[in-house]
Amino acid sequence: MDPKGKVALVTGAGRRVGRALAIALGDAGCRLAVHYGESETDANETASLIQSMGSEAITIQADLEKVADVIGLAASVAEQLGPIEILVNNASIFDKVELENVSTEDWDRHFAINVRAPFLLAQEMQSQLPVESPGKIISLNDWRTARPTRFAYGVTKTALSGLTRTLALSLAPQVQSNEISLGAILPPSDIPLDRPRSEIQIELGPADRMGTLNEVADVMLMLIRNDFINGETINVDGGRHIY
Question: Where are the domains of the chain?
Fold first, then answer.
């Protein structure tokens, strides 16, 4: 697939990894739907950066915990830009809650945002795409799916891997579905970005360094341009999953 001119939706695209992926798609010539939940100012900045490159970009707010909002998000993209051709499931939640403290509300919220929303968006994408028109689904995951922990988060991210592979079978050959599992790319969101890396206690694995946003974006673009890779997990973690 040549990404130029394609309609792309990136969830959680206002900040951090989501913003980097949206900008990379804009730089490749995509027409972008920048989704956000609460970060309207950040989403507008992302869209402005993409527009400054000469690509089209709109912002759409949606609460991914709500079924109606997710379906409305897909409908809004189709109405304003056209059928979704590239879907990047970046948005997720990560609550550090151990088994004894996980409430049913925590459990349901993680499943709604981390698994159900990507499923619903894929379903809506399939219904929008014309017959034989190609599509790409790329979900951002976590290297920890190799050793799931943190219960609600870990279980839902493992479920996302299953969804990725099931979509790869269900949507083939029209749409390819793959995932990128990340290691340490950015410091945790509660740590300032300008804090020295030496002060951030993160196990970095065999590469002995943090990854870069460009390294993640490069893999995403490769998966978009390659029509033969399907149902695959690409680990961008410096080898951390085997460490």
Answer: 7-242
The secondary element (H helix, E strand) that includes residue 139 is strand 135-142
Task: Say if pTM beats, i.e. exceeds, 0.85.
Answer: yes
Q: Which two tokens stand for residue 239?
A: 């080898």
Burial group, residue 56, by CB count within 10 angstroms (0-12, 13-18, 19+): middle
Secondary structure string (H, E, C) spanning 155-191: HHHHHHHHHHHHHHHHHCCCEEEEEEEECCCCCCCCC
Residues 6+ apart with CB under 8 A from 102: 151, 152
For the record, the structure tokens of 144 come out as 């920890």
Give the CATH class of 7-242.
alpha beta
Summarised one tens digit per residue, pLDDT across range 210-231 is 789 999 999 999 999 999 999 9
